[in-house]
Structure formats: structure tokens, C-alpha cells
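So, can you check this one?
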Amino acid sequence: MSLLGRLLKWLASFAMTLLGLALVTFAMTRLSPIDPALQMVGDHASQSTYQAARLELGLDQPLPVQFLRYLQQALSGNFGQSISTGQPVASDIARTFPATLELATAAIIIGSLIGLALGIAAAMRQGSLIDALARFVSLFGYSVPIFWLGLLMLLLFYARLHWAPGPGRLDVMFQYTVKPVTGFALIDTWISGKAGAFRDALAHLALPAIVLAFHALAGISRLTRASVLSELGQEYVLTARAKGASLSRVVFVHILPNIAGTLLTVIALAYASLLEGAVLTETVFAWPGIGRYLTTAMFSGDMPAILGATLVVGSCFVLLNALTDLAAARLHQGQAR
């Protein structure tokens, strides 16, 4: 199949997946016991006001017509108005999503670097202490609840040792002196030229990023170790070793390029899961991201906010998966040549 054909196939698959996601979120609105019209006008509104709200929301139309309207609004970035904040959901998401993106990006960088290094070292020294450590970290990272780990880290490094700042993204003294230009605290504090504010933003980011990274590096290190070990028994590795190549050269020159597609996939999936799974971490550390926004919306029954945030996070997950598949295919094609 030509490159254009593969690209068109990828776009069609991506569009169908997004359409399915939109259909699921639309079904959530109709299966929910919360009446959006009643939530809009309040419990004490008159019957005429309630009916007017239903007409405004299009709830009197057939379900296919309602879905097309919902799809059109979603594509235009209109997710309705949040009941909790009184602001458009789109503006709330634009305000909170950069915080989640910043936290997840820092976490995946930390998790990838440590996970890859730990997995490679464990595979090169199978049966050693570093191998046992890698397997323990992997098991512990999968088993420990992330909210418990976050609370423990806050208790130890913030409450007891005073090595880390408290929850949030910035201290109060910097919150109203740094202009939010991009929504990313590190970038905004850097642009402001205030070194103290940048160091404070970095210090606030470190602890939640490490907690979130711990879960990611568990999977990355385990798969890296397994992939390297499976390649060590291949004929091309045995041939290279027979010619006198060192183990480190074989691993870094021959094995890692061959498993690059697999590693890229697992890292991208871990990154996508961090974007959608940062809810508990953001809640524990009072991180003002989309996860915490979604948690607040759930407790208040704010359906427009819930559906808008779910659709955005789900779209990011689908997009990352699609881009990863495309990149992995290009890597495999390059290796075949």
C-alpha cells in the first residue's frame, strides 16, 4: 500500500474512533438520571421555563437529530456552560488542561529515562541485584495505589522533612504576580523573568511528577527488560557477540534500534494514560488540572463539564494512539529497508 493510502486509512480509522467516542459521551447524557434542562433552570422554575429550556437544548428533537447537533457543537468547541463555575466548559478546559499536560509531560520524561535505564541494566545483568531491583520496582509500581503514594510523599517530604513545597502549582506570593501567558507554570514563570517564581514552580512540579512517573516507569522498565532479553537470544546478536562485540555495543547499536517501535508504543501509551489518569494525583496535590476539574464536576453533577472534559481527554488518548501507530509503522518500514 502506498504512503497516501496508509495515511488515508489512518485518517479514516482516527475519524471513526473519534465518532465512536462522541457517540459514547452523547449516550452518557441521555442515560444519566440528571435532567440537563432541570439542571439549567433549577428546581423551582415554572413549567413554561422548563419547557423553554428543553426547546433551547434541543431535547424535544429525535435522538439522531440531537446527536448531530451535539457533534456539530463539539466540533466547534462548544461544550456548553459549566454548572459549577458558570463559565463555558471550553474556557475551563483551556484553563486547566495545560496544567495536566505539564504534569504528565514531566512525569513521562522522568518515567521514560529511569524506566529505560533500569530495564536495559536489568536485562544486561539478568539475575543480579539490579535485576531484582527492577522487578521489585515494576511490581511495586503496579500494585501501590497512586493516591496512597502521593499522600505518603506529602507526609514525608512536605510535612516532616520540609524538603518540598505544599500542594498547588505556585506559592501564594507568586500566583498573582506571574501573568498566565501560556498556562504552563514553568514557561510563564520563565517568561516573567522572576527566578524565584521559576524555582518555586519547578519545586511544586517535582513531587507530583515523581509520584505520577513512578507508575509509568514500572511498565516501561518491565517491557524494556523483556524486549531486550528476547532479542539477546536472536541469531544476529549471537553473531555479533561471536565477532567480538561487547554486550553494551550489541544492546545499544543492534538491539535498541530493533525494539524502538515497541518502546515508542509503550511510552506513548503510558503518556496517554498519565493524561487521563492524573485525576487522583491532581486531587491529592491540589493540582489545578483537568483531572481535578473533572473530579469537582462529578461531585457536583455538572454534566456539561464532565462530558466536555471526558471528550477532550479521550480525544487526546485516541490521537496519541493513532500517531504512535503511524510512527511505529514508519520505524518498522525504515528498519525493513
Remarks:
- The radius of gyration is 24 Å.
- The chain is about 80% helix and 0% strand.
- The mean pLDDT is 85.
- The chain has two domains: 3-70, 93-163+212-336.
